[in-house]
């Protein structure tokens, strides 16, 4: 079959229209209860109090100034939000929901076009609804509420949207029958990559996955082609190294050494722990009940391969997944690619870079093809098509209900932080953040109750915040606060409050 063939799953325009319409309606319904959700946490610093996004006009100079950050595309979108609607929070949420809808739509068409490729068409020609079911399941998954309902995480969702669009455009370019069409689509793919990278740096893996996609589905795993590509990739790496040698200040330096100074874990501890975090992500993708979702996880560290013992088990399972992908590459190309997609797109934020251990939004992009893999396995392992319908319908209904429920928690900072504190009862930060919310409301009594809980935790070590944090200004002169300093602050730190 030639690349430009229109045969394959979901070729009917009616099915395309119905699928996209379903995604649009579902997006609006599931996130309708977040439209009034207030600016939270990093939203305050990067949006509400950020002078840079307050552009006076749409001139080139104003737009360039707003985009002059490490994530220019995302910040420019916030600047445009502010220009047209100032701080009307509804408009920011509408954009986030629209991005989520577009991401699911691009995912749908990417899967559809991939299934039409000659190298795998025969295996999937009977799975007509595979792209639709995958896109709907992915869109409805409650684990994505952090990427959609938390406004600043537009950086993450926008990057993923342009990422999957670039993959779709690459597919269309490779299957185009005209030189003009190919050229235009390859240029569009490159622009989409730049937009993805300009939204968030996780898109750095995109060139690798385009090469992998080419090798799997167009080069039929040709080793000679792979060796040539590896040589080209190596030369590009050498070029980057040479540029670093010439202009070291252009690249971020010292991140692996200085970056860990603000955390209570080391680089080896983080790397070991992240293997267990990956298994947590998988469990959350498949069972994302609202009771399991958390803004600030209190995840125990791994100190060695056997402390805790689950560390070694997690490492073996993660490595086994990659090995399995290699073993399946000839017989089950798409399944193999999905496994590598999930592991490869978690690598940036789940390896050596000094970041918090766990955040749900990191699963947004990797989960796209993990959901596809799951749907494929269900269709292959369960022969009765009526059973497929029941399983997918029930799962979509359950996921949708849980997403709506989880979004109720995202309505305001206080409800979200109290939820977080209850789910991380031994971690100081969530309790401290709840205290700050009550302090901003000038409720000294409740603020002090939560502050007492926070400073009683073993990991509380920021006594200076009690003195200098502006969020506590409204209660700092209260009798309750004075009593807290007298009774709960260790003597060696009380000197801060006598200055």
From TrEMBL:
Record's keyword annotation contains Transmembrane: yes
InterPro entries in the cross-refs: O-mannosyl-transferase_TMTC (IPR052346)
Keyword Membrane: yes
Spans through the membrane: 20-41, 90-109, 151-171, 183-213, 225-246, 309-327, 334-352, 364-382, 389-405
Annotated keywords: Membrane, Repeat, TPR repeat, Transmembrane, Transmembrane helix
PANTHER family referenced in this protein's UniProt entry, alphabetically: PROTEIN O-MANNOSYL-TRANSFERASE TMTC4, PTHR44227
NCBIfam families named in the record: TPR_END_plus (NF047558)
Name of this chain's protein: Tetratricopeptide repeat protein
